[in-house]
Write a structure and sequence with these properties.
Helix content is 43%, strand content 24%. It is built from 26 helices and 26 strands. Mean pLDDT is 86; it is low at 1-5. It binds ligand C2E and calcium ion (2 copies).
Amino acid sequence: MDHAEELTVDPRLLQAVLDDTDDIVIITDAEGIIRYVNRSFERITGFTAEEAQGRTPSLLRSRYHDSDYYKELWQTILQGKPYHGDVINRKKDGTFYFEEKTITPILDSSGRVTHYVSTGRDVTWRRKAERLLRMRFEISEILLRSSSIDGLMPVLHAIGRHMGAPVVEYWTRNAGRYEKTYSWTVGAGERRSFVCSVNEGAFLAIVEHRRRSTLFTNLRNNPLFRRRFCSAEGGCESLVACPVMASGRELEGMIIVYGPAPEVADEEALAALTEVGSQLGEYIRRKQAEEQLTDLAYYDTVTGLPNRNLFFDRLKTALKHAKRDNTSLAVLFIDMDRFKLINDTFGHRAGDQLLYEAASRLRGCLRPEDTISRLGGDEFLVLLENFANISDIQFVCQRIVNAFADPFIVESHEILLQVSIGISCYPEDAEGPAELLRQADQAMYRAKQLEGSAFAMFNYELDREVVQAMEIQAMLQQEIQNHCAHMMVFYQPQVDPLTRQLKGLEALLRWNDPERGFIEPSLFITPAEKAGMIQPLTEFVFDQVSNDLRHSGKDIEVSINISGKLLHNPSFLEFVRQRVDRREVDAGKIVLEITETAAVQFFDESCKKLQALKQMGFRIALDDFGTGHSSLNYLMQLPVDMIKIDRSFISRIAENRKSREIVRLALNIASSLELDVVAEGVEDEEQMAFLVENGCRSVQGYLTGQPAPLTELAV
Ligand code: C2E
Ligand code: CA
Ligand code: CA
């Protein structure tokens, strides 16, 4: 059959064929102007032949396809080749249909395009299963690639494209309320009123309890749907609300897919959307978890304290600083005995609550700058920096032990928790963080062996000091309750090195325990200060000195040592004032010795307090002069009458040039400020000679007199 014969077919027959077919047929001229459309075109698109003729096929453009799609289409047909492809077009009523299209260029004998014939099949329903699959595949891809919750926007786009929906929204559920957070739309301009931020929370609450994708049709008559008035013009007459749930339980939000016709959402589509919903739910949960992960990686969830990782980081940094600055640091490993038992008896909730409270008690024992961390279970770690000496650490531990002496209340039960604390120190015990932790852990096991709450140092040597200090505190407490029955005051003379004449006495406390024998002040003064027991001791010295002086009838000046803490204690100053007011103490006969370190601390306060004491009639001596590394400028502003050059400089006069210079300097300052000066700890004639040579007029030391009871002194 040749061409000419084919065209002789009766045109009415052809017309009947075109009219009967279910396919959409469009014939355009070479310029793309529509010349003919068939009945199926009219039926499916809603445009009449009159409306279509004279227009171009862009009449049906849905905006689902980008310019690349049309470029490819045109490139193919301009070359005279037929084009096959799927196209999403828009009907007159704004709704969409999927068309499987073939466009065939018709060429004349010279090969020029005269017409284009487009035949298409409405495959909106036939292709759905495939489309749904493709949608899910695409969404999985998007979620896999995206790194944040912003990945939701492309997901909405994919849903819209594959389901042929004009608008897709995502509503976030937050504390039971819904808020539209993402919205994707085709041709937003036409749907401006629909896309606005109207809150459909009330409507969504209805959907919520169904827990699966639900179709709503006839939105324009749904009184709960607030945008019902513009639902028709937006082509959004029905919707599918799809819950976004993680693990099928927690509702994260809701996807809403709008559609023109209810048929869009058959069972298959609803199932696919439900699937997408749970996929999204998992994804959102995972993203949220990832965000929390940074926190989880560094903090303990029960107590809110730094966890082992953060502790380790801080320990490493602290070690770096300690090495650079030549300072020391300590690691405490704290374990709560019997905690497991409590957890088992009262349950994990009670256990967690107990841990939280234990953690806050620990906090209370530490300075804000100390790091405290929960290692896991009932184990805690503490990092102590910037302490003066080992006993400072031990006092912190004692404070912790004391803090745990009070019971915790758990579900109206009183529960006593014992703590075992292991201590390791840099640089004494180890250089590295891991080793320090291990040693502290080891020491903790030793502490567990002791009775009750206890602490132990990794280093046994250092331990002995602690035990001693603690024993002494316990004994001191007894002794004070006993009105210092085993204490007495010794006096050490201060004499003029030239005439050997007595110039004054220093009162020095002595403790002779019936069981332990003589206990040196160097062993008990510091523990007494730390345990807050120095005041009763000093009050004892005050009263003793007054008594001794009264009984002996001697007219001599006596120095009394005042601990730095007492200077700032109003109740002690009140005690002193009362004694002076009642004339039980003759202030004019008393010198109060304050160490340089104590005087310089809280400088302004110290000056005021010292001034007040001077006003009561006391003279003030600056004890241990030269040991506090204080600037002279400061020292010269202090209201003092006397300085006592520290024994350490005197004892090194012979071998150390620097010591000699300090002694000389002190003597010079004293003479230029017209202060009295006493050289402490003079033990031999050589030291004495040097002092005399440099103008020292008062010495105190074994050479000129040991401390002794007043009655035994040849005064
Ligand atoms: P300090 O105030 O520097 O007292 C002088 C210490 O040097 C006394 O020691 C004294 O016995 C000792 N000493 C005196 N001459 C020599 C010497 O030639 N060679 C040597 N090596 N030592 C000498 P002590 O009595 O053991 O007191 C030690 C520290 O205890 C005192 O040092 C003082 O800081 C403190 N202390 C003593 N009694 C009291 C007190 O009643 N209250 C307070 N707050 N502290 C006190
Ligand atoms: Ca002294
Ligand atoms: Ca001294």
